[in-house]
Amino acid sequence: MMDERVRDDRALLVVDGLKKHFPIHTGILRRTTGMVYALDGVSFTVERGETFGVVGESGSGKTTLARCIVGLIEPTDGKIVFESAATQKNDVSRRVQMVFQDPYSSLNPRMRVGSIVSEPMFIHRIGTKADRATRAAELLVRVGLRPEHARRFPHEFSGGERQRIGIARALSLDPKLMICDEPVSALDVSVQAQVLNLLKDLQIQSGFTCLLIAHNLSVVEYAADRIMVMYLGKVCEIADSRSLYGEPLHPYTEALLSSIPKIHPRSRRKRFVLPGVPPDPSRPPGGCRFHTRCPYAVDRCRTVEPSLLAREDRPGRFVACHRADELSLTGYVE
Ligand SMILES: Nc1ncnc2c1ncn2[C@@H]1O[C@H](COP(=O)(O)OP(=O)(O)O)[C@@H](O)[C@H]1O
Ligand code: SF4
Ligand SMILES: [Mg+2]
Questions:
Q1: CA-to-CA distance for 56 and 75, rounded, in angstroms?
Q2: How many CB atoms lie within 10 A of CB 231?
Q3: pLDDT average, residue stretch 288-316
Q4: Which of the listed residues 126, 132, 204, 233 has the most CB atoms within 10 Å of its CB?
């Protein structure tokens, strides 16, 4: 299956059976007493030019996934193929860039904005100092700031402006893949749309592929072409956005859709709130990981883990639920 997907030249990124388990150390001897199963067999493909949304509650493994793809951490198992199997690590670190969740902690407070934006070029020894300064000024303009902002420090900017600086830095090496890890969740609601629109405009201009991570479905709604829903280190469902919103196949997707705030106050949309919080990923429930919160769970769900399967009758759709064929779930209704 893997080889088939790699040969597909539309694929920019192929992730296959990815696992990342973090050891838990306790006591003075720091003995390993358990594991956090942050990613536990995640497979998907990102096509060139698309925006691929990754959605799941906090703790589902989204940031760990992003950090594995950019090479900040080593996976425990599985494969990540960027462009082709022959692509070197150095190419990946140049061609895959990340925009971080928190624009307050991700920018070095002691560096001037110009140096922050040009640092990736400096690390990869691109251009002269003057070239890099010119490019940094251009990048600041592209993200809606001014060239003279290069001389200032991060604390002189608002959250939204800081995220623009983070985006300028990520753009500086002209990446093929931009991984945006909850790029607006630390920002005021009033500036969230501006930053998302900026990302969309930049993507149209530069043609990069985008992996957009969010903890709920309202952020990715209009930005993503396809969406992957994650729960406790597993993939629940992958679908194009329209199908996912209109006809979810996984009960967790239905729950996420029902929790999107209503636009029309008289909407008759059924709304159920998921009971409880996600279980501890160091003690994931057996069988289907969602069974402790799933309103449709049956006996089999508690013992047998559902695999992520392609739906023959719905091209391009994948779902991991024993009852996916028999359930008729509610999509997003305004
Ligand atoms: N470096 C680490 N060491 C131990 N556990 C970690 C580490 N990084 C993340 N985790 C754990 O892995 C799980 C997934 O975390 P994360 O990938 O940050 O999820 P998300 O971004 O979806 O909120 C969480 O339970 C988190 O506590
Ligand atoms: S496999 Fe069972 S518990 Fe899991 S989502 Fe489907 S119905 Fe719910
Ligand atoms: Mg995260």
A1: 20
A2: 28
A3: 95
A4: 233
Nearest to 160 by CA among 213, 103, 100: 103
Hey, what amino acid is at 89?
A: K
**Looking at the CA of 249, which ligand is closest?**
2
C-alpha to C-alpha distance for 51 and 222, rounded to whole angstroms = 10
In 3D, which of 238, 187, 172 has the Cα closest to residue 211? 238
- Give the CA distances from residue 111 to residues 13, 130, 143, 152, in Å, rounded to whole numbers and listed in that order: 33, 17, 19, 9
Domains with residue ranges and CATH for the chain: 50-74+87-319 (3.40.50.300)
pLDDT tens, residue by residue, 108-148: 999 999 999 999 999 999 999 999 999 999 999 999 999 99
How many other C-beta atoms lie within 10 A of the C-beta of residue 222? 12
Q: What lines the ligand 2 site, CB under 6 Å?
A: 250-251, 288, 290-291, 294, 296-297, 301, 306, 321-323
Tell me the C-alpha distance between 314 and 8, whole Å. 20
Report field, pTM of the whole predicted structure over 0.70: yes
Give the model's pLDDT for residue 219.
84
Please give all residues whose beta carbon lies within 6 A of any atom in ligand 1, as ranges. Answer: 22, 36, 38, 56, 58-64, 281
Ligand 2 probe mutation, 234, 302, 322, most atoms within 8 A of CB: 322
> Which ligand is in closest contact with the Cα of 230?
1
